[in-house]
Structure prediction request, 148 residues.
Amino acid sequence: MSEEVEAYKAQVHTGGCACGAVRYRVEGNMRPVVACHCSQCRKAFTNYGAFSAAQRGDLNIENAAGVTWFESSPGVRRGFCSRCGGALFWDRAGNGFVSVSAGSLDQPSGLRQVRHIFMDDKADFYEIGDGLEKFPQGQGGDQWPGGN
Ligand SMILES: [Zn+2]
Prediction:
């Protein structure tokens, strides 16, 4: 491996669901965290979703059989633990990366949250005052290192 690749691969993150049935490992840099306030995340995460992301080839899911995949919108699937229901992954077909639930990462993650997306769908019972940039829809979109 080149020095550049070795430095990239040295960034290792691990994480998993609430019950421990599903664990994963990411060997490579992860994207800063994006808070998604869309209705799907609201219902899947008790409120909003916080996602980092990993290049597809860097993500190794241990016990992948323990993950249930659900098509939440056309071409997009969400993965959660079949036992505890812990939300873990957001995966759009064709993307080079997979979004990973930031809350499922082992601490310390070393990551920072950088923006809020889908503000138009935000629930009415909370306000956001952290000064980070906000987008009405999914700006930052499907690119790396944009939104989820
Ligand atoms: Zn679990």
Residues 3-130 form a domain with the glutathione-dependent formaldehyde- activating enzyme (gfa) fold (CATH 3.90.1590.10). Residues 3-9 form the longest helix (7 residues).
